[in-house]
């Protein structure tokens, strides 16, 4: 029985910051951002959106009434949790008006947990093939204004319907997980911004990729020539290039050229929205499927998932016959093209306007947010959501 991604959808807010303008405001050569880390634009998150509303907005784009009836489990993968006890999935389930007889949980391990949710979903469906699992990977990447990590911020959500006989990508085995206790990135409970050792994190990322990729080859006897594309978790797009270069070196044969072309296709959306944390790998998948002209049914895609702290996993998937029809390229392009640019001062104002970690009553101005699902504010230490 095939199990994998039957539908995949994406949401990010209607606001973005041009990184050339940010570079100029910070007194930095724009090429440090545009070329050095490979980013052009960055999603700006208004205070009326958080992981719950972005997750619901992403899921709403792909769900039909029939889908909603078949969902047995909803898993939210995030490292931007809004409560240390209550799962964000509970809020998302209510906004989506799903049946109450649904399992709802939240999972965490930095940027990796979307993949953990996918593997958990595969196990559930193998036991109950008629059920479907909704995975939402939603995050807001925050490092702080005028910090070294500011240019690798961003936000948004990926929603994936996992089912038997999927129409996008059937996940193949085996997968290779690898973990170590590493302090390359963390966010203490008292902090809304992450702490990171950037150079160390990059080296750990590449090391984990090489370890999992080498073990995968040993277990399967497959090589790079068996892959139609290799995609990566992309906290910034240059990271994917560094990982691919670690195994390609300076090779320039036709398949190596193809791998680099496919990588560029997978980077396109991340270059426009920035870091999605748990959703980043799957945004790369969506970008590949909507931007590449070199894919066909039956192709094997290699996926490397990574979360600081640290956990990596390499696995593969097989493209299915209907993948082109199911990725809804027009919807993705419309979302990206309809966004409005904000100035650096406006971005800074919105950054500071987040509810954050406090017990105050907050009533947000919804007049500028026309999305279906919004955060109305906080009252009596409870977040209040609204369907518009």
Quick tags:
single chain, 388 residues, Peroxisomal Thiolase, Chain A, domain 1, 13 helices, 27% strand, HMG_CoA_synthase_prok, hydroxymethylglutaryl-CoA synthase activity, HMG_CoA_synt_C_dom, HMG_CoA_synth_N
Short description:
With 388 residues, this protein is of the alpha+beta class. The chain contains 13 helices and 17 strands. It has 2 domains: 3-168 and 328-387, Peroxisomal Thiolase, Chain A, domain 1 (3-Layer(aba) Sandwich); 170-323, Peroxisomal Thiolase, Chain A, domain 1 (3-Layer(aba) Sandwich), CATH 3.40.47.10.
Write structural notes for this entry.
- The protein is an alpha+beta fold and 388 residues long.
- The protein folds into two domains: 226 residues, Peroxisomal Thiolase, Chain A, domain 1, CATH 3.40.47; 154 residues, Thiolase/Chalcone synthase (Peroxisomal Thiolase, Chain A, domain 1), CATH 3.40.47.10.
- The chain is 37% helix and 27% strand.
- It is built from 13 helices and 17 strands.
- The protein has a nine-stranded mixed beta sheet, sandwiched between helices.
- Strand 12 and strand 13 form a beta hairpin.
- Helix 7 packs across helix 8, helix 8 packs antiparallel against helix 9 and helix 9 packs across helix 10.
- The longest helix is centred in the middle third of the chain and has 23 residues.
- 47% of the residues are buried.
- The model has no long low-confidence stretch (mean pLDDT 96).
Number of strands: 17
CATH topology of the largest domain: Peroxisomal Thiolase, Chain A, domain 1
Principal-axis shape? globular
CATH arch. level architecture of the largest domain = 3-Layer(aba) Sandwich
Tell me, rounded to a whole number, the average pLDDT.
96
Radius of gyration: 20 Å
Q: What's the tally of helices?
A: 13
Protein structure class: alpha+beta
GO molecular function, one term: hydroxymethylglutaryl-CoA synthase activity
Protein name: Hydroxymethylglutaryl-CoA synthase
InterPro entries: HMG_CoA_synt_C_dom (IPR013746), HMG_CoA_synth_N (IPR013528), HMG_CoA_synthase_prok (IPR011554), Thiolase-like (IPR016039)
Keywords: Transferase
